[in-house]
Amino acid sequence: MRLLVGQDADDAGKLAAGVVLGAVRSNPALVLGLATGSSPLPLYAALAASGADFSGISGFALDEYLDLPDGHPQSYAEVIRTEVTEPLGLDPARVHVPDPHGRDHAAHAAAYDAAIAAAGGVDVQILGVGSNGHIGFNEPGSAFGSRTRVVPLAERTRRDNARFFASPEEVPTQCLTQGIATILEARHLLLVAHGGHKAEAVHRALRGPVTEDFPASVIQRHPQVTVVLDGAAASLLA
Ligand code: GLP
């Protein structure tokens, strides 16, 4: 596991962007795994500012809420469009987000995993970590062998994400998320976190026991992981 620590969130974003830019330089048809939430925003901003050509890459989002109306600004389809696809100049036809609007979520989830495999698998998977240790929306207790599926959101996650919605009740109760086994198939995991509120989760993910009770700890089993933090998020690491 490689650990990079920036001076602040923007500096960490630039360091993480350097990892992605290096991968895109050696493979302009890179398959990039896309995370949402606040953690990767400095990374996406640094990628957009780089002026690099991302038009040949494909993207697969980790997760999507269920039960938001199509086009809701907090749906991850919209967040990916406005924070990633448009600023980086990605080809929208090559950017995939789990579709929550079909009738058969299980069939769609299986097709999503198959689409990732058909694209050759994810080369670099960007990951944030939830304060309860979730990756994607794999909440504590998620099986390490899990595939893309519907999961109920933990109450703590709904509280954490309430800041993005007009009221806490508006936060969806379920989502579609790539499974942990799906995530682990990526060739390179790039975990990003900033802020002192993430220090404990980062410590448990990197140094704690590997357990389904804290899903992010599974990254310790992956052969190629880069973790990019700011000083505050790294503050509990010895
Ligand atoms: C979100 C996403 C995750 C993200 C995590 C942390 O809700 N589903 O993919 O990594 O929770 O969020 P944040 O980066 O805003 O702290």
Order of helices and strands: EHEHEEHEHEEHEHEHE
- In which order are the strands of the major sheet placed? 1-10-9-6-2-3-5
The average pLDDT value, as a whole number, equals 97
Low-confidence region ranges? none
CATH second-level architecture: 3-Layer(aba) Sandwich
- Helical region count? 7
Biggest sheet features? 7 strands, parallel
| CATH domain fold name | Rossmann fold
So what's the CATH class? Answer: Alpha Beta
Q: Percent of residues in beta strands?
A: 15-25%
Shape descriptor reads globular
Distance from N terminus to C terminus (CA atoms, Å) equals 15 Å
Number of strands: 10
Structure ligands: 2-amino-2-deoxy-6-O-phosphono-alpha-D-glucopyranose
How many domains in all? 1
Structure notes:
Strand 2 (31-34), helix 2 (41-50) and strand 3 form a beta-alpha-beta unit. The protein has seven helices and ten strands. The protein is of the alpha/beta class. The model has no long low-confidence stretch (mean pLDDT 97). The protein has a single domain, classed as Rossmann fold. It is 32% helix and 18% strand. The protein has helices at 9-26, 41-50, 76-88, 105-118, 155-161, 180-184, 199-207, and strands at residues 2-6, 31-34, 58-61, 63-65, 95-96, 124-127, 149-152, 174-177, 188-193, 225-230. Helix 1 (9-26) crosses helix 2. Bound molecules: 2-amino-2-deoxy-6-O-phosphono-alpha-D-glucopyranose.
